[in-house]
Amino acid sequence: MRARPGPPHWAVGPATLLRVLASVACIAGLASSGGAQETAESDAYAWVQYGSDGQAHVRVIPSDRGTCPEVTGDGFGAATMLKVPAGAGFDRVLCDAPLPPSARGIRVGVFALPPVPDRIRRFAVLGDTGCRIAGAQVQDCRDNRAWPFARIARSIAADVPRPDLIVHMGGYVYRESPCPAGDARCAGSPYGDAWMTWAVDFFEPGAPLFATAPVIWVRGGSEACSHAGIGWSRYLAPDPQPMCAPQDAPLSVRFDDLRFLSVDSAMGTEADATMEEAGERGALAAGPGGSTILLTQLAPLLFFARHTAADPAAPEIAAMVAGRLDLFATMTFAGAPPTIIVGSGGDLLDPVAAARLAATLHGTVEARFGYAVFDRSPGGWSISERDPDGVEHRHCQLTAHEVHC
Predict the structure, then answer these.
(1) pTM value?
(2) How far apart (Å, rounded) are the C-alpha atoms in residues 193 and 29?
(3) What is the CATH classification number for the domain harbouring 150?
(4) Less crowded by CB within 10 Å, the N or C end of the chain?
């Protein structure tokens, strides 16, 4: 896998950057998240996502916990099939049906779902959206200012024009331990890797996204098997299954001249062989031709540093979008594609970690809640970093060589 060569924007090498990111991750403690209701208002959910075959699928969590519903659209109709049965801690099943290319008018019962796009002109990115309850780290899950995921989801849904695609960079559930006794910020909250935790931390506040655009879900560190990996594998994984899969195969989704390649780095580190092997598999999954945007929670920086003179037939990585850190940042340096970190979707922010990263990299780093919208522009993409209410805070320009804000 090779990055398109370009001039360095910062005088920082990948090895140095790795040390900085590793120290910041330790500072942040992979903490995050915050805010809203402690019970799910809806009893059913339906959305469109890309499966392991690279095609759009309807996913449904039905209200009756058993019967999979019909999916209809303009000129087609089919029954969804039971994909994952109920299990311990997860009394809700998952139903699934592949969609025909460019499907329109998609409906599942009362749910009107978004069309399947041929070409991506605009896509929205968010990440690290859960509400943090982990020992002494407690976010106010009832305050949508302290935990703005629901606001962000509504803002993306209200955007004009709507995005053709939504990318979630991982970090869906952070309610890991019981709410401390007497703490009104999270009293009564479910916790642990179980259906009710997923319902209040992700599905309920994120529901506006489901009617807005098809989604690529990226696996994050909180979806490792030691955390919320069962819920991930049951409901959001490209190839869903009842138990946690240690690593998902790379997902390659192509839209006309653009490809998104999602590589699972939930249980790896930036420097270990696992990430390099994932990069190799990703190159094979992407295949030649077109422009590729790499999606992965941990940026495989050393992989790119060691492979800048790789096989010229390897796919060109035009940009890399990562998560993990609870902030927004952009980076350009020799030996890797332009990199954008989007991890500010609700998890606890860490201004100290952001300040240390900014001081070391002398780049764009923001410790504020929000999300990003990518729009096609001449020679690349314009990036709008927005606050939870959809107001632009910063504008950036991404080309195949670098990103500037």
Answers:
(1) 0.88
(2) 19
(3) 3.60.21.10
(4) C
